[in-house]
Automatic annotation (TrEMBL):
<comment type="pathway">
    <text>Purine metabolism; IMP biosynthesis via de novo pathway; N(2)-formyl-N(1)-(5-phospho-D-ribosyl)glycinamide from N(1)-(5-phospho-D-ribosyl)glycinamide (10-formyl THF route): step 1/1.</text>
</comment>
<dbReference type="InterPro" id="IPR036477">
    <property type="entry name" value="Formyl_transf_N_sf"/>
</dbReference>
<dbReference type="GO" id="GO:0004644">
    <property type="term" value="F:phosphoribosylglycinamide formyltransferase activity"/>
</dbReference>
<dbReference type="Pfam" id="PF00551">
    <property type="entry name" value="Formyl_trans_N"/>
</dbReference>
<dbReference type="GO" id="GO:0006189">
    <property type="term" value="P:'de novo' IMP biosynthetic process"/>
</dbReference>
<keyword id="KW-0808">Transferase</keyword>
<dbReference type="InterPro" id="IPR004607">
    <property type="entry name" value="GART"/>
</dbReference>
<dbReference type="GO" id="GO:0005829">
    <property type="term" value="C:cytosol"/>
</dbReference>
<feature type="domain" description="Formyl transferase N-terminal">
    <location>
        <begin position="8"/>
        <end position="190"/>
    </location>
</feature>
<protein>
    <recommendedName>
        <fullName>phosphoribosylglycinamide formyltransferase 1</fullName>
        <ecNumber>2.1.2.2</ecNumber>
    </recommendedName>
</protein>
<dbReference type="InterPro" id="IPR002376">
    <property type="entry name" value="Formyl_transf_N"/>
</dbReference>
<keyword id="KW-0658">Purine biosynthesis</keyword>
Amino acid sequence: MAEARYSICVLASGNGSTMQAIVDACRTGYLNGSVVAVVSDNPGAYALKRAREAGIQAVVIDRKGLTQAEFDAKLLSFLRRIGPDIICLAGFLRILPSGIVNEFNRRILNIHPSLLPKYGGKGMYGIRVHRAVIENRERVSGCTVHIVTENVDDGPVILQRKVDVLPGDTPESLMERVHAEELKAYPEAIKTLMEGSGSVQQSIA
Ligand code: GAR
């Protein structure tokens, strides 16, 4: 098989199902890329186990015992060493400092479980997002993949997938349906970045 064109580094703090979707999309050839490393700030992250099982380098930069600046410096140093074409935040619960965002300008993606700019920002992650969507009686929700900028859950949107909010939905049931869309959205967005034209694609060409 021809060598994958783009190298991808995934940053994940938890379960890693969106990371797995990216790994699988590379393995099937849907994406012309390969996941070269998975980095977590949480030694107990299931994402690390998934990475090891897939034969991918799994790296822990434990957030405990490190200041924010120390953590950021270690992460930057690792990213410089492996020099990935694309960095994917997959349930990564740290905010990237401007130094990293600028150095990998327009090459860092994030997935968020709402239709941004709605229900984004600091403190908005996981089930909290879906709870807020239900409380506000939204009729539609979904997920967003976007380019990471210095502001949390901001930056150019690559794609969104919508999900109807159904009568009787709970935060959990909505989360489940949005999550199913996230597993499709992330590989699609990465493909758009790799194959699309315009400024987004030029950033990794
Ligand atoms: C995903 O739902 C993702 O959108 C969310 O964390 C989950 C990670 O799932 N991210 C955020 O809320 C970021 N603001 P995973 O660990 O199974 O990939």
